[in-house]
Amino acid sequence: LPKTDSRQVADRLKLGQTVEPEGFDSVTVFFSDVVKFTQLAAKCSAFQVVSLLNDLYNGFDSIIEDHCVYKVESIGDGYLCVSGLPTRNGFAHAKEIAELSLSFMEFVNKFRFAPLPRERIQLRIGVNTGPCVAGVVGLSMPRYCLFGDTVNTASRMESNGKAGYIHLSKDAHDLVASKYNQDYETRSRGEVIIKVIYYLKNERMLILHLTSYNKVGNN
Fold first, then answer.
1. DSSP characters for 162-203?
2. Which residues form the Guanylate cyclase domain (predicted)?
């Protein structure tokens, strides 16, 4: 549960009371997924799979600590987090998630897993901005969950994305472009079945792409 609300929520849950869901007018939701994780896992023992995910998520969790972002959950190789709730932060949530996404890409670009030294871990990242409802579900093992089309669209941004890219919905793109236009460069991917989506990059991402290209060219 979010630290800001954990004590109050925990007290209510101990008393068997329900915790009312809360609506948020504007948040930015982030989904990531390890590309071809099933194939990677097939090359590892079960213990190695646990070690791989643990190493990845320890890195991700450490990055999150530097941002106004709340980690909702990680299931398998999927990772879900959000900015703008439970603590509202105006429109800064778009920049927080943009910076987080770029930092995640930097991290995996350098990440190596000893049992699979030749394998390069890649992420797909999907981002969407919009309204959201958050609430605690369950009593014995309560979970802070997100609900609404904003969450569903962020998930589709990820699942329909390309490896190594940060995919923004039009709503996320428009907010980033209007508030932080000088900090990022976006490129339209064009029309897809979902809606128009955009790629996000800045100087760091450009350096990462060039570095990766040079490494491939030298092999």
1. -TT-EEEEHHHHHHHHHHSTTT-EEEEEE--SS--EEEEE-H
2. 28-158
Asked whether 125 and 160 are in contact (CB, 8 A), the reply is no
- Are 139 and 129 within 8 A, CB to CB? no
Contact between 202 and 184 under an 8 Å Cβ cutoff? The reply is: yes
Provide the 3-class DSSP secondary structure of residue 119: coil
Which of 19-28, 36-45, 49-58, 133-142 shows the lowest per-residue confidence on average (mean pLDDT)? 133-142
Q: Are 176 and 52 in contact (CB under 8 A)?
A: no
β-partners of residue 130 are: 27
**Per-residue confidence at 53, pLDDT binned at 50, 70, 90?**
very high
CB atoms within 10 A of CB 29: 31
Query: Are the C-beta atoms of residues 98 and 180 closer than 8 Å to each other?
Result: yes
For residue 198, pLDDT over 80 is answered with no
Q: What is the CATH number of domain 20-207?
A: 3.30.70.1230
Q: Tokens 């472009």 correspond to what residue? A: 177
Where is pLDDT greater, at 119 or 58?
A: 58
Exposed, middle or buried: residue 145 (CB in 10 Å: 0-12, 13-18, 19+)? Answer: middle
